[in-house]
Design a protein that fits this description.
3% of the residues lie in helices and 36% in strands. The protein is mainly β and 442 residues long. It has a seven-stranded antiparallel sheet with strand order 20-13-10-15-8-7-28. The protein has a six-stranded antiparallel sheet with strand order 6-25-24-27-22-21, with no helix packed on it. The protein has a four-stranded antiparallel sheet with strand order 2-19-4-3, with no helix packed on it.
Length: 442
């Protein structure tokens, strides 16, 4: 959307006011007896008050009416959005989904909230420890309604169609090959411009951070300066029956109010929504031999209380040069103590060029073996190892978690997109074992 402006940086202390109301931010204090322009002061806390300063998250709003003015929340139907991980029996198999179906606008109007479907997850929002992976598939904009998640943060990965997200902090346009994070409790509405689809990683009990770089040093991977935060924008709009939808303990609830929640004239703080363009990722890769672990492609991480172990990592496989010598360059065969959900935004993933399609996904549960299909193995075992561009025109990603995720009934049955022939891509793998092989005398 032309004309949208952003603040830059990750986790910074920001301050923004709508230029229509200069001086709306109070000077020298957060909560004056009377705020400029007759506004209300309201704090949104993303951490306990007593968290250490580096991890303390909060923002102050200066708004026309406070968010507390609403009718009581009442339960609403949530159908395919769930936190029930025992709907079906566990399935340890390699799972792959064909592109998830987008409802046709000519048949049924479906907005962002109605188009949410839970694929898999684990843990519990009540105890603030766990994750969920959802798909969204919609065709119409939210009208006189907004959504907020009391359970955790939402990392949104558009795959088809740009989305205009209006938040209490301002507006963000997020396109495929960009991501955004809407943190716990932040109210937002989604406008779409046709048939739209994407992926969502939800994390309970932790916020996303930039990964530590260790020996890499001070720069690289996702650089803080490339993250964008919306600037203050408000509407003073009276609405009969504006609907606020709240996801709370895995269920949806709605309440009614008579004004737009996007009435924040100014705000300041370090607890904000943000977006990031994946093209800005500074890739680290092998330049001698062997295939490095995919952790070198981590964009964001939500840390657990165990050092070095994430509740969830967001990892991408961007275009890059492959130059490793004496090396099988695609991903190696692997059994992992983590769970790996993969999605594809565009292009063809190098380890499975057929079958794994944009808008689809795969789940390799913990300790379930996976790796290149037979065609990829044979091709790359004999190829001439020249420098080559890898993943040109492609963007695959992975939600990796230390949780053992359960797949929902929607994911296994209702969506009818599960590729039951997935296992066949490894069946042509054959033995190359030669007991008479001996090392060369070179």
């Amino acid at each position: 959307m032309a004309g949208l402006k952003y603040l830059t940086g990750f986790g910074n202390e920001f301050a923004s006011e709508d230029p229509r109301c200069p001086g709306a931010l109070p000077e020298g204090q957060n909560n004056p007896q009377v705020c400029p322009y007759g506004l209300y002061a309201e704090q949104l806390s993303g951490s306990a008050f007593t968290c250490p300063r580096p991890s303390n998250k909060r923002s102050w709003f200066y708004r026309i009416l406070p968010s507390v003015r609403h009718k009581p929340f009442v339960p609403m139907k949530s159908e395919d959005l769930t936190e029930s991980w025992n709907e079906v029996e566990p399935d340890p198999n390699q799972l792959r989904w064909l592109p998830f179906t987008i409802p046709k606008g000519s048949e049924k109007k479906v907005d962002f909230v109605a188009g949410l479907h839970t694929v898999c997850g684990a843990g519990d929002s009540k105890s603030r420890n766990g994750i969920a992976i959802h798909m969204y598939a919609c065709n119409t904009s939210m009208v006189d309604s907004c959504f907020h998640n009391s359970d955790g943060d939402l990392l949104i990965v558009p795959q088809q169609g740009e989305i205009l997200i209006t938040t209490e902090f301002g507006k963000m346009m997020v396109e495929p090959n960009e991501i955004c994070v809407i943190q716990q409790g932040m109210r937002f509405a989604v406008d779409v411009f046709g048939e739209t689809r994407g992926y969502i990683l939800e994390v309970y009990g932790a916020h996303f951070e930039l990964p530590d770089l260790g020996p890499i040093g001070a720069n690289g991977l996702a650089n803080p300066r490339d993250f964008l935060v919306p600037v203050a924008w408000y509407e003073d709009r009276q609405v009969h029956g504006y609907t606020v939808v709240n996801k709370y303990q895995g269920k949806l609830f709605s309440s009614q109010q008579d004004f737009s929640p996007f009435n924040v004239v100014a705000w300041h703080g370090n607890y904000t929504p943000y977006k990031y363009n994946l093209e800005n990722f500074m890739v680290i890769n092998c330049v001698a031999f062997d295939h490095a672990d995919p952790s070198i492609f981590t964009v964001l991480t939500a840390k657990s209380t165990r050092p070095g172990v994430a509740i969830a990592d967001f990892v991408i496989f961007p275009p890059r040069w492959g130059v490793a010598d004496r090396t099988f360059r695609p991903p190696y065969y692997h059994r992992n103590c983590m769970s790996e959900f993969m999605g594809l935004i565009k292009g063809h993933y190098e380890a499975k060029e057929e079958g794994f399609q944009p808008g689809g996904g795969s789940l390799h549960s913990m300790m379930t073996p996976h790796g290149p299909d037979a065609e990829c193995f044979e091709k790359n075992s004999t190829s001439d190892l020249k420098p080559e561009r890898v993943a040109e025109g492609t963007m695959a990603f992975m939600f990796e978690s230390s949780f053992s995720m359960a797949v929902t009934k929607w994911g296994l049955e209702t969506c009818q997109r599960l590729d039951k022939s997935y296992y066949k891509c490894w069946e042509p793998l054959k033995s190359h074992f030669n007991p008479n092989w001996r090392p060369s005398n070179k």
